[in-house]
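Provenance

Sequences were taken from public entries as deposited. Structures were produced by running a predictor on each sequence independently, with no templates supplied. The record for Pilus assembly protein CpaE from Altererythrobacter xiamenensis is shown for reference.
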Amino acid sequence: MNAPWKSGMPGNRDPFAAYICDDAALDVLRPVVIELGWQPEKCNKGGLRNAIQSLSVSASPSILVVDLSESGDPLNDINALAEVCEPGTVVIAIGQVNDVRLYRDLLSSGIHDYLLKPLSAGQLRDALNAAQTVFTAPKNADGEATKRHISTAVVGTRGGVGASTLATSLSWLFSEEHKAPTALLDLDVHFGTGALALDLEPGRGLTDAIDNPSRIDGLFIERAMIRANDNLSILSAEAPINAPLMTDGAAFVQLEEEFRQAFEMTVVDLPRNMLINFPHVLADVNLILLTTEMTLASARDAIRIISWLKTNAAHAHIMVVANKVQAGVAEISKADFEASIEHKIDFSIPYDIKAAANAAKMGQVFVEANRSSKATSVIKQIGERVMGASEENLANSEPEKKSLLGGFDLKSLLAKKEKSAPVRETAE
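Predicted structure for Pilus assembly protein CpaE:
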């Protein structure tokens, strides 16, 4: 295999060096290095501390692999490495600590990738190929504005409130009507309907990402995502229901990082159980669309979720979307619902069961199959609001509506509901 790095890497540096703690990892790394056209002698015994000592008296390679296995304080040692590395060095760290916080902190410190032991040849090959693309990718012109990216999470207060319908519809609108490159990430790994709504097979992309988060890079995204149209790609799954979800969430973090590079819009269909188990998924989300019905159960769960979001995702702007709204037949009035959750309802989508059935029969998302529906009109308004989002206008948005009833609770509402129930009169 010819090495594809030669034209892009700096000519006055060694292309590669590695500092590895154990012989087993060296035995896996050396054949891959030879395959890429590099010198196996550049695979040195000794981990991060040895790398720091060596690079303090010699030039840095273009690509550096360092082993953190013997480091007691990886982040501090990585900072020490940065002091002796020349600018432009692409660093891949390897280690045996499977911790999503460490993974995020390492990426934030400037590390290109973090691979878990035991290493595999395929894992190393993918990581080193991805590192090489840093030198061949076109560079942005000086002063060019950073590409805007909006990440939206759609969360349902309960199953069946229509969060997935909203997520797929918004994704389609962003991609088709706004021509914005869009990624849809359906995190209902066992029972997701994102691909189904778009009349697609989900593929194995998401399950492969969960099983091998270190493989996630731009090339993986290009190959693993299913293309719905020219501007919309989806990552979904129908994992076997006898296979529990075994992940620390590192894959989801890395997927969102790659989406920021490849797309203008990201929509995450985020089930509430995933919200609680993997709060770091919201770390870079700009907007949270909390989808609800006008029921007592949804009001109770909206209160709990909004409280949780204020603690765990305070940076994100919350918009409440009431779905399946039927005039005069809601369990709770809009005013009482807003008072109970201490937040205004930003949008109300009317109930249209015939339109939903029509979309399912046609194998299209709701807004595509029902372009003249009143519900579609509201979803388009939501899409316009999201497309116009920015950090500035979110910060200056209308403050949350505080309860006018002080200690309002659901028991009071339930009692009020029973008192106001209509009395059936007997015919005269």
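The longest strand covers residues 317-325.
The longest helix spans residues 296-312.
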